[in-house]
Amino acid sequence: MAQVMVVDDDDTVASVVVSYLQRAGHSTRQIGDGAEALQAVATHPPDLMVLDLMLPGLDGLEVCRQVRMSWPRLPVVMLTALAEPDDRIAGLELGADDYVTKPFSPRELVLRVESVLRRVADAPQPGPGQVLTAGPLRIDTAARRATRDGAELALTVREFDLLAFLMAHPGQAFSREQLMREVWGWTFGDQSTVTVHVRRVREKVEADPTKPTLIQTVWGVGYRLELP
Prior knowledge:
The protein is of the alpha/beta class. It folds into 2 domains: 3-121, Rossmann fold (3-Layer(aba) Sandwich); 131-225, Orthogonal Bundle (Arc Repressor Mutant, subunit A). It is 41% helix and 22% strand. The protein contains 8 helices and 12 strands. The protein has helices at residues 11-23, 34-43, 60-70, 85-93, 106-121, 157-168, 176-184, 192-205, and strands spanning 3-7, 27-31, 48-52, 76-81, 98-102, 131-134, 137-140, 145-148, 151-152, 173-175, 215-218, 222-225. The strands form 3 sheets. The chain has a 5-stranded parallel beta sheet with strand order 2-1-3-4-5, with helices on both faces. Helix 2 runs parallel beside helix 3 (60-70) and helix 7 packs across helix 8 (192-205). The model is unreliable at 124-128 (pLDDT under 50).
């Protein structure tokens, strides 16, 4: 059972989300304000945050930005409007692990939440595990710790999984569809999710993200991790 914080100022939507999450066995906390949500995370961090984009005061993008600055490993599933693709991309660029567009199926939201939680839960407890290296990069898959030149990288759940998958298959090119299936566990969805996450990972691991040498684009195919 996970503790899920639902941040949405629409009481009707939030109540439905809370109800479905509780039926799935999770404990929930409902908050309708972005600033209050940040205070709540600081005092009682949840296992995952469901975050609406449109909030009074601090909007969802700003809340996500501050969460990523202070709690980089807290999973965030963002709720966005179907008609605003730019907002969805902005949420992913700020580090949201996943998003669901309104109007949405509560069952789909629960599945997305549990997919992100499963990624965290399936990771072994810190201790000896598989260690992957690629040039200046080093990943301990058991401890879920990634470093570049010895400095720890602040990666989200999805960013870590994406980097670990590519490092486990050096020299092999993967399409965005393949990465979505292998890393996200989805057989459908907006493939721009993969594009944005690749860009975010490059910003953290490449010496010059505009001229990547580690995570390379394979034109007409997708992406490949190239060993130095």
